[in-house]
Design brief:
7 helices, single chain, mainly alpha, Rossmann fold, 2 domains, Arc Repressor Mutant, subunit A
Length: 130
């Protein structure tokens, strides 16, 4: 109903499948409802590029659900910008164990490079997803 990006982003981050403005015609509203029922995600046409980002974010959140409790703990610390040694001290585990968890996280999230991992951590931080 609102034309505010903040509402739209929050709706998408909380798992909304569609966002309909109240200025839409009845036909468009019905078509949107039918599309969502068929499993599609529908957002205003002006933000099609943003819709791709939502899909990628949804996929990332699904992958995050595959992580173990300890991997999530390590990921949370990494997102905060802590070094492996600091994480090891914080979680009372060895640095090698932190490195193993980090490697496992990258594998489960299908991240192949340190750069891509840093980009993902930045995304989590900027959108406060985790």
């Amino acid at each position: 109903m609102h034309r505010d990006w903040e509402y739209l982003q929050k709706a998408a981050n909380f798992g909304a499948d569609a966002y309909i403005l109240k200025t839409e015609t009845s036909i468009n509203i019905l078509n949107t409802i039918k599309s969502v029922y068929q499993g599609k995600k529908i957002f205003p046409h002006k933000i099609n590029n943003l819709q791709i980002e939502f899909t990628e974010t949804d996929e990332l959140l699904k992958k995050l659900n595959t992580l173990s409790k300890r991997e999530l703990d390590v990921l949370h610390e990494l997102k905060s910008g802590k070094l492996n040694r600091e994480i090891a001290d914080e979680l009372q585990i060895s640095i090698r164990t932190v490195e193993t968890h980090r490697s496992s996280i990258m594998q489960k999230l299908e991240i192949r490079s340190t750069f891509a991992f840093a980009k993902m951590l930045n995304l989590l931080q900027s959108k406060n997803l985790f």
